[in-house]
Design goal:
787 residues, alpha+beta, 19 helices, 5-stranded antiparallel beta sheet, flat
Length: 787
């Protein structure tokens, strides 16, 4: 059936001057009965003042058969020649009449909550889903001001504010809210979209909205966020008790109202692994926490033991090696609560409302360590299948950290001796790019010696690599891994890879090491590393990190600040990229590289410790050695819980008077010219005795670049602690030595370079490669760096 619009025209005196067919159908009154009469004669009830003011809302008419008829009415003024109001056009529809159109049915039957408001935030339409959420039928909502239909609360004020924003701006918006609703017994997550409705003339007449219940997706995101947070918040100190505390802190109050971690006694000692008994199980409480201050729900004190009966959820979780959920009403759940109340009756009041619990085994590398228990009292939802999957994943990550700490205690003494033999006993003297000072302090805790290390590696072109790393864990295995990684870094540094590429190769190495565990057990390794390369010629510092803290930079006359950089994933994650950061250092700038033991401790705030380190780095000091001592004194606690490595490097620069650069055209006839230019520069530097070898090196390297390389070609001489000759070109093909036969016309050039120089090599650049060779300078005073 086609719908006919109900419309009427009223003059300025309130008399009806026009009456449509739709009005006749709606009210049962023909035009001849109505036209000319006061409009007030048609009312069954007085029109509310707010409806008159808004010119829209619900009014009650008297039908021709005598029954009251509520309609949603809108008044539009009619303007005369002088702009004054000469009357009104009224349009109306039954407020809850079903819309027979397909669009109307789609609106009414939509699974999401949908409503339409006028510009004054009064209800015009609501579908069945919206009425279900509100707990009110549509006819009771229409024409009502939104705040009058809900409780006064921040989320209601936010909803009203967004409605008004659409009216004011005329633009659609979307936002998310986690709130309750009048007819719902718990908070829900809503994805809400609001958009303006306009008449054919383009005037904004109403605001429509659709609200999608995204609670399940919201909870899934929360669980994923907790897992992501666990990667950085659990196991920060590699201490058994602290790791258990971090697990509890992560669970409460977002996942549980009360949580506890109980461990088998041997985990806290050094005995061999026992067999988990089949009957009752004795566990020791190491950590618990609650949404209520003071944790009054706890029936077991920290450090005490408890006997878990064989049928209890914690004992079942250990025997079955899976998460066990128990709900209110189940016999074992009631028995477990009764035991709590009997053991600690003073906490009975705080256990009221407990309705769900989950017990999850802590197991790592196939070994059971204990159990974590989560309890819900105020949280309205019971634990379900998705919660068990999350809890098992989280518990497995925490268990690895706990098991690592257990192993460290037993291996500490051996690890200390091993680590001392692997760390560098002194720093190299074959570089002048930076002045360095270092400190290494092994921790004094029972957790054992860690895998911290540092290194300073001379590179080609007067550059130097600064390295600081930390193998996750303590003990022999960590120390051995540290030695392997340090050796790997030195090997990769010799290839002259950029920092991000070097860390990628190092990450692959750690992944391979982790896969080489004995038997079927996969070794679980993890490490962080910071690799930096400083070039005293360009004054550029390039660095990249693999899960390692950013270094601090002290500029002359400025405060110390952390270098902004991407930390990157720790070594061993695999498949994720590393990002390099590059900056220019002025003469005298100090870079402080360190391991996390310097600023992280379970009794200290990381941000505050970082600020203390930066302040100490800015304090006056006679030398870098004194500055190193000042930093440790200002930042380190009396009993550090982790190893500390600190490496300070003060940047030096090579002035333009010690570097000579030429662009070489790809013409073999020009080789003699550049050979002569190099000889003249050596004379200016007072190095005539090196001219013969340098001429040969320049001739061979430039000739090879012209013959086998790709333009642009560049020749550079550097006078540092050694005389360095570099030839760069745009080809990425690296040269290699080969054995020339008796009658070969070529093939001996690089062999002569290798024989006549101290060392030579090649490195890849962003635009090709660089071949370099170093000659020792005559004995005498070292060149003075520019200051």
């Amino acid at each position: 059936m086609e719908r006919v619009a109900a419309a009427a025209v009223i003059d300025a005196l309130g008399r009806v001057t026009g009456w449509s067919e739709g009005a006749r159908v709606l009210t049962g009154r023909p035009a001849q009965e109505v036209v000319g009469r006061p409009a007030a004669d048609l009312l069954a009830e007085e029109v509310p003042a707010r409806t008159l003011a808004a010119r829209s809302g619900t009014v009650t008419l008297r039908h021709a058969d005598g029954r009251p008829l509520e309609i949603a009415l809108t008044a539009c003024p009619v303007l005369g020649p002088d702009g004054g109001t000469t009357g009104y056009v009224l349009t109306a529809d039954p407020p809850w009449q079903a819309d027979p159109t397909l669009a109307g049915q789609a609106f009414q039957q939509a699974s999401m909550s949908m409503s339409v408001f006028d510009v004054g935030q009064r209800y015009l339409r609501s579908n069945a889903a919206a009425c279900h959420v509100m707990g009110i039928p549509e006819e009771a909502l229409l024409g009502r001001f939104f705040p009058d239909t809900v409780e006064e609360a921040p989320h209601s004020e936010g909803f009203l504010r967004h409605l008004r924003q659409v009216v004011e701006t005329g633009r659609a918006l979307r936002y998310e809210s986690f709130t309750g609703a009048p007819a719902l017994n718990r908070d829900h997550a809503w994805s809400i979209e609001m958009w303006p409705l306009r008449d054919p003339g383009g005037e904004l007449t109403a605001v429509a909205l659709a609200a999608f219940d995204s609670t399940e997706q919201y909870l899934a995101r929360l669980r994923l966020a907790l897992l992501n947070e666990a990667a950085t918040s659990i196991g920060t100190t590699l201490d058994v008790v602290r790791t258990a505390e971090e697990l509890v802190e992560l669970l409460v109050p977002r996942y549980a109202d009360f949580a506890s971690v109980d461990l088998l006694d041997w985990v806290l000692g050094s005995e061999e692994l026992p067999i988990v008994p089949e009957g009752d199980i004795v566990l020791r409480r190491v950590a618990h926490g609650s949404a209520t201050e003071g944790t009054p729900e706890a029936a077991v004190r920290l450090g005490e033991t408890e006997v878990h009966l064989a049928a209890s959820p914690p004992a079942r979780a250990l025997r079955e090696r899976r998460a066990v959920v128990s709900q209110a009403g189940e016999p074992e759940f009631r028995r477990w609560v009764d035991e709590r109340n009997a053991r600690a009756p003073e906490g009975r009041a705080h256990r009221q409302g407990v309705h769900s619990m989950i017990a999850v085994p802590l197991q790592a590398r196939g070994t059971l360590l204990g159990v974590v228990v989560g309890v819900r009292m105020h949280h309205p939802d019971d634990y379900v299948t998705d919660d068990t999957l999350f809890a098992e994943e989280l518990a497995s990550r925490a268990a690895v950290c706990i098991d690592n700490a257990r192993r460290f205690a037993r291996e500490r003494s051996t690890a200390l001796a091993l680590q001392h033999s692997l760390l560098p006993s002194g720093l190299p003297r074959g570089q002048a790019a930076v002045e360095v000072a270092h400190r290494y302090l092994p921790c004094g805790s029972v957790a054992g010696i860690g895998g911290d290390w540092f290194d300073v590696i001379p590179l080609s072109g007067s550059r130097v690599a600064l390295v600081v790393g930390d193998v996750v864990g303590h003990g022999i295995r960590s120390s051995a891994t540290m030695g392997r990684l340090r050796t790997a870094v030195r090997t990769l540094a010799d290839v002259d890879l950029p920092p991000d590429e070097l860390l990628t190769h190092l990450d692959d190495l750690v992944t391979h090491l982790a896969a080489d565990g004995p038997g079927e057990e996969v070794a679980e390794l993890g490490a962080t590393c910071l690799y930096a390369v400083y070039d005293p010629v360009s004054r550029r510092l390039a660095l990249a990190a693999a899960g390692h803290p950013a270094p601090a930079l002290v500029l002359p006359g400025c405060a110390a600040e952390l270098i902004p950089m991407t930390a990157g994933p720790p070594l061993g994650v695999g498949g994720l990229p590393f990002e390099a950061t590059e900056l220019e250092l002025p003469e005298g700038a100090v870079v402080a590289l360190y391991t996390d033991g310097l600023i992280e401790d379970r009794d200290r705030d990381v941000d505050r410790a970082t600020e203390e380190m930066c302040r100490a780095l800015c304090a006056p000091a006679d030398s870098l050695e004194s500055l190193s001592d000042n930093v440790l004194k200002a930042v380190m606690p009396e009993q550090p819980s982790d190893d500390v490595a600190l490496l300070l490097a003060r940047a030096r620069t090579l002035g333009a008077d010690r570097v000579a650069t030429w662009d070489v055209p790809p013409d073999p006839a020009q080789v003699a010219h550049f050979r002569q230019a190099a000889t003249e520069r050596l004379t200016a530097w007072g190095l005539d005795e090196a001219a013969f070898v340098t001429e040969l090196v320049v001739s061979e390297l430039v000739t090879n670049a012209i013959r086998y390389g790709v333009p642009p070609i560049r020749l550079r001489l550097i006078r540092d602690r050694a005389l360095i000759c570099e030839v760069s070109d745009g080809s990425s093909t690296s040269p290699h030595l080969r054995r020339a036969h008796a009658y070969d016309e070529g093939g001996r050039g690089l062999l002569l370079v290798a024989q006549l120089t101290q060392r030579w090599g090649s490195r890849q650049t962003g635009s090709g490669k660089t071949i370099w060779a170093e000659q020792p300078l005559p004995e005498g005073p070292l060149p003075i760096m520019e200051r």
